[in-house]
Amino acid sequence: MSALLELRDLTIDYRSRRGLVPAVRGVNLTLEAGQTLGMAGESGCGKSTLAMSVLRLLPKTAVIGGEVLLDGEDVRTMSWGRLRAVRWAGASVVFQGAMHALNPVLRVGDQLAEPITLHGGAGAKSSSPADVERAVGELLERVGLPRRHAKAYPHELSGGQKQRVMIAMALACGPRLVIADEPTTALDVMVQAQVLKLLAELVSESGIGLMMISHDLSVLAQTCQRLAVMYAGRMVELGPSAQVMHEPAHPYSKALAAAFPTVGDPASRMAPQGLPGDPPDPTNLPGGCPFHPRCPVSTVECESTDVLLRQADPGHQAACIRIEEVAGEPV
Amino acid sequence: MSELIRAEDLSVRFKARGGATARAVDGVELTVRKGEIVALVGESGCGKTSLARSLLGLVQPAQGVIRFEGEPLPTTAKGLKAYRRQAQLVLQDPTGALNPRHSVYEAVAEGLRIHKVPGDERELVADALSRAGLRPPERYFLAFPHELSGGQRQRVVIAGALALQPKLLIADEPVASLDASVRGEILALLLKLRQDLDLAALVVTHDLGLAWNIADRVAVMYLGRLVEVGPVEEVLTAPKHPYTQALLSVLSETPEEPLAGSSISTGPIVLSGEPPDPTRIPSGCRFHPRCPLVAAGLPEEMERRCRTEDVPILSGGQDTQVACHVAAARQPTS
């Protein structure tokens, strides 16, 4: 049986005036139904590009190599009609910035109804207005909003409520895979906690696969079973959330994990941890391990040897030649 | 450490649509001492930004006084201009705060020109940039914002503030729009500025981890009032107000795991609902409609007080204070 989502040697370059700019440089990944995977990394590391490639949502300037298999079917070579059928019903996206992703001049209910009318799903027996309206009401209740909000315009809702509408919309056609791109960025801690709890409940109830993208490791660790950390277009670490968070095997993951302190931990009191330097320029990646110029533990070897993922523990991989030493130290 | 800025019984009100009055800040007492870093935390809409803006003289308080070094804030345009040299604002989004067509040099020199700061402009700009961690400063003079990374842009904004040699920085979510890896660097910079220049800061944030990283004291705000104030170690490891407890509980990444060094071990307390509307502040304790203690059931007399009696306003001083009937009854001395 084929996995829900499988990426094989995925590469994505953007055509630009300066030639091809690599955004994703060879990623292999598998996600089964009911699994949750978090993708972490800083701006420009390629995590959103990777996620958008799953539904062929990239701009025309993107050049994709490798395979993107959704239920064993390559999204890259799908016919336009088949792709339309897969979007929403097979896999859907919760886009970042709920504030701006809804149409401001349409009622929330009408926006939720659109994919249901076009694709069916969410328990709507037919696309008759009454059935669709009932399905919209059920969707709103599923994400914890009263049915009457179907009549509201986006500006009448708070940020958290809008994000719930976005999640409801992603669920409208009963997809098997949901991709959530920074679903809680710009939300408050308490609202963020509500939204994360909702996502976790929906995943466990309906057995859908979830790929969640964020730059905040602690948010991902709350919701996802596995975490992938990306740097300069490649996956540099992949493993169970708790391990990546608390025993990272790559120095970059270590820096990300330390960036969000545990309140109450004396080690981080009055000692904010950052990572010096800037993310690399994708048109001019450093030779060897692309992380070496910022790496606190790099050696001469790192300047010339490029590293791919290797095993740290069973089910836990990292792309670092000093993997044993790094993995051995506590955060 | 002596007092630098103090808000006394401060209220900020706005006219909302339909003629209602939004009580964004509704009786706040807060002090920031010289060289002290205070974190002001709370949800969106709790009034923390309105409070910060009123401290800069950007909004007129409806009631109450703000004293800077003991003197009430000036009300004349000239007086306010002089005051704003002492208290500088750092905003959340450095990309929006910088003019895309101004070079780094111009961005930093602008404040110097407005305030007609004496001395060699080039030297002052270079000094501010290197203090903000952009070294060597000359390399950045002619750069434009789009050529810089997010972290570097925020350093330029901070340099622009530092050029005027202020005594107080008011930073509104200074790292919220920055990447995780850059966040720590900017926070470390704020700590270093305090150490080198004795610069005080009021950091407005919804991020309790930030408070733990750099603040001396934390003030938790809910619907226009401070509900808990005190040293970071006390408030964040042994929170007394149910709202602070709920905020902290949702931070721990695994539900079963208690917060390190904390007395909470009950898993996350996810408050339902959105923060209520400042145009309709509930009677009694303003937190009671969302309070997990009230929801769990309290003795009848206590519940009556929570629902009907307003909680006294905290004085915002140095000791730990909590605005909660239940917490006050548990510890009659505090």
Description:
The complex is a heterodimer of chains A (331) and B (334). With 331 residues, chain A is α/β, with parallel strands linked by helices. Chain A contains twelve helices and twelve strands. In chain A, the strands form two sheets. In chain A, strands 6-7-8-3-9-10-12-11 form an eight-stranded mixed β-sheet, with helices on both faces. In chain A, strand 9 and strand 10 (234-240) form a beta hairpin. Chain B is built from 13 helices and eleven strands. The two termini of chain B are 23 Å apart. Chain B is an alpha/beta fold. The interface between A and B is large, with 44 and 47 residues.
What's a concise summary of this model?
With 331 residues, chain A is of the alpha/beta class. Helices cover 34% and strands 23% of the residues of chain A.
How are helices and strands ordered from N to C of chain A? EEEHEEHEHHHHEHEHEEHHHEEH
Number of helices of chain B: 13
Stretches of chain B where pLDDT is under 50 for at least 5 consecutive residues are 254-265
Helix content of chain B: 25-40%
Strand content of chain A: 15-25%
Separation of termini of chain A?
39 Å
Structural class of chain B, please?
Answer: alpha/beta
List keywords for this structure.
heterodimer, A: 331 residues, alpha/beta, eight-stranded mixed beta sheet, 23% strand, globular, B: 334 residues, Rossmann fold, 2 domains, four-stranded antiparallel beta sheet, 35% helix
